[in-house]
Amino acid sequence: MISKKKFLYGFIGVVLTASLALNLALFTGNVAVVTKANYEEYKQFSKLISLKKAIEENYYTQVNEEELMNSAIKGLFEGLNDPYSQYLTQKEFQDLMEYTKGTYSGVGIIVTPGEDGLITIVSPIEDTPGYRAGLKAGDKIIKVDENEVTAREMDKAISMMKGPAGTNVKLTILREGKEISVDIKREEIRLKTVKSEVLEDNIGYIRITTFDEKTADDFKSNLKELRSKGIKGLIIDLRGNPGGLLDQCKQIADEILGKGTIVYTKNNKGKKDYLKSDGNQIDIPLAVLVDKGSASASEILAGAVRDNEAGVLIGTTTFGKGLVQRVKPLNDGSGFKLTIAQYFTPNGEYIHGKGIKPHILVEKEEDQLKTAIDYLKGKMK
């Protein structure tokens, strides 16, 4: 059994601060003299320690101390009422890192905690089981294999949706007030985040499905190949792209914007940090396709293109995620995501909860690409 003192130091050391240990003024035998501030901090956790002891001594069955500790830490983050800030166990953190590397086994969807408390699909990933099963941006996942799930157990739900390739999982989704059950066979998801081709009238097309560790390099090689074929205009397709790594977004912006601001952030002290692009700029007309599944890093790139007047946005209003998270590992292999700032487009627009409106609104998905082609044709004359 973990002692009171060990529990307190472990909890504060992992989640909050080691200030109690660092600011001890004097040790005399078993007595520690601490500052008043640190004593007040200790008092905040006395209730937690007392309740933990009450559970261990009186609960009707044996208590799993690791689960109890994890739940306490998760509760600390839940107290922020921010769906993007989470404590991740060792397994959950490993899964997150695995995804950013572009390979995992599952159904191939990107989800986020919805403000209604339900797990919301940001977008299905193209050419994956979830995509082929007809899952859509905005669908709410309410059951996984008949187990009810909410945004509070999103990490658990994600773990349940993953599994060995070839096995089945049943998802119950809520779409426009109706429940729909979908049986999906899991596959090994090997994300190819960038693909390209030359369309009619020498118009280049680059599709970016997400921003993982390889996306920027793949974008650069695809753009170079298209340029070698003599393209006269370029379409970048960010529809259904849920975002990902900001540094990859930055490297892509470096290729197309010229010198300018990509995005700026503001923290809780009002400090602003600007992310700038270098001098590279494409010298052909640019159109960017967006929709309600374009989120986070996709919106940063779209906002940078719009505000720097580097191209035109075509499609529908984007998802609307204007918060920046830091992902940090802890010594035991666990980690956490914490919202540390708001982000603003170069012109100062805060898009959280409202998204970015395109220059040219095209509601029907099947008409969006054609509209972009027609627009570029007019610019290439």
- What name is given to the CATH topology of the largest domain? 2-enoyl-CoA Hydratase, Chain A, domain 1
Alpha-carbon distance between the termini?
77 Å
CATH secondary-structure class of the largest domain: Alpha Beta
Strand content: 25-35%
Helix percent band:
25-40%
The radius of gyration is 24 Å
How many structural domains are formed by the residues? 3
Mean pLDDT: 87
Report the sheet with the most strands, covering strand number, pairing sense and barrel closure.
6 strands, antiparallel
The CATH superfamily of the largest domain turns out to be 2-enoyl-CoA Hydratase, Chain A, domain 1
How would you sum up this structure, described in words?
This protein has 381 residues and is an alpha+beta fold. It folds into three domains: 4-63, no CATH class; 104-189, Pdz3 Domain, CATH 2.30.42; 192-323 and 339-380, 2-enoyl-CoA Hydratase, Chain A, domain 1 (Alpha-Beta Complex), CATH 3.90.226.10. Helices cover 34% and strands 29% of the residues. The strands form five sheets. Strands 5, 6, 7, 8, 9 and 10 form a six-stranded antiparallel β-sheet that branches. Helix 9 runs parallel beside helix 10 (246-256) and helix 10 (246-256) runs parallel beside helix 11. The longest helix has 16 residues, at 365-380. The radius of gyration is 24 Å and the shape is globular. 34% of the residues are buried.
Features:
21 strands; 3 domains; six-stranded antiparallel beta sheet; disordered N terminus; 2-enoyl-CoA Hydratase, Chain A, domain 1; alpha+beta; 381 residues; transmembrane helix; Pdz3 Domain
